[in-house]
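Re-run with default settings, no changes from the original entry. Doing this only to confirm the output is reproducible before filing.
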Amino acid sequence: MRFTIIAAIALLSIGAAPRSPSLHAPPRCAFNMPLDAAQCARLHAASGGAGASRAPSANASTLLYTSDPFEAAVDIWTVKGKALKSSGRLELGAGAFPLGLTVDSAQNLYVAVSSLGSGTPSVAVIARGATKPSRVYTQGLTAPVDVAVDAHGTLYVANLANPLGGGCAEGSGPGGSVIEYAQGSSKPARTIDDFTGCPEGIAVDSSSNLYLTNIYYPATGFLLSDVTKYAYKSTHGTALGLQVPGGPDLGGIQIAGNGDLVVQNVQDDATLNQVLTFPQGSKTPSNTIQYPGVGWGTGFKFFALSGKRFYAPAYIMENYGDVATRPAQFAYPSGRELLVQKTISSTEPFVYGMAVSPGK
């Protein structure tokens, strides 16, 4: 049983719909992990990098961005040699709750910033090497959870209607929308809201088609989830009807260079995470990257795919005391771990969204 996006990760353990109406979720404080009070408290601990924003200046290096909602910050890692090196941090200010991330062709970082009361729901755009936003989008936004930018410079924002995820269950009202902004404009150009339940993740392909994952809790039965495809500038999509083993509970989504859909799935009632590859036009996956054993891919809601590499939190066993999440690099599509951030401490940041800036 899982929580809706904001409620699950924000220590708000009341009011989320369970996966089955006949079952009730135990108190949880982050994602799909049941944690004790001490573990939950660690997620609020300072991650050691608080203070003024700092960003690396080298333009040639590959950078990995990871959002840390509990610290209102985005951490920056340099992919170098056989390690991921901590190399900067972007502080977003009190009340900010950064979630999904993306990078455009000009290597600008886009951050979906939700709010827990004191902040302003927004999307911040930060140039590579900068420490402050060059543009901030706010119009039409209530609870941004993910972002995507197409080849025309169009910005898409997956937006919950309610910061607590209300509307994901049948009869509870609208779950949210995707807000579209034309290049250079801060005013919404179109709104997509023809899907059922709540938006989860979004991505665009090389032809500027938009792909949206959503979740929906019916009055009876189990959670429903699918991917809907929208042609460029269309507000009416086609559900793909993906056949998902051990689910579906789809979240983060990326488009591979050959057009394949790469989708994260919370498998088997929120116990294991996997990444599924669906070839173009196929309803069944051709490849599965699986987090094995009795653990979770903690914070594995959104991941970053860059060519033959993808980035996600490293595997952590379910009884791991520090509940730390370390970013790692894996081979795609095999899932073989290549690089991992080695340092372990109880104050490591909680990794949520990810994006890659490949450098020049």
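The chain is about 5% helix and 40% strand. The longest strand covers residues 83-91.
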